[in-house]
Amino acid sequence: AELLQVLKSLGRKDLGFGGKAKLSVGIVGYPNVGKSSLVNSLMRLKAAETGDRPGVTRRIQELHLDGSVTLIDSPGVVFDRTQSDAAAVLRNCVPLDKVEDPVAPIAEIIRRAGPNALCLLY
Fold this sequence. Notes:
By secondary structure, the chain is of the alpha+beta class. The chain is built from 5 helices and 3 strands, in the order αβαββααα.
């Protein structure tokens, strides 16, 4: 509720020459972290489609919170197109049912965490 009030007050700010500020707020981040859920919470309705898998939001959407504030919901940010398939899986950029060979991501997890740490955890 506090974030909503801050956004609305910034959007209503008087610019000093008779005009009011218009605020556009981009919601960006890694895939499947709740960007669209945040938008829906701020809008207080299901304005953006959500899901429990990455890739539900496929394009940028502009949603008008009120006359002065626009929320911009974006698909997940994936920084490196040259990354390996394993890295894409570990960044949650690929739905697990689309992974053809799970060996490479598993090997990468073992390399990063180390076998001893995994044995202690599991």
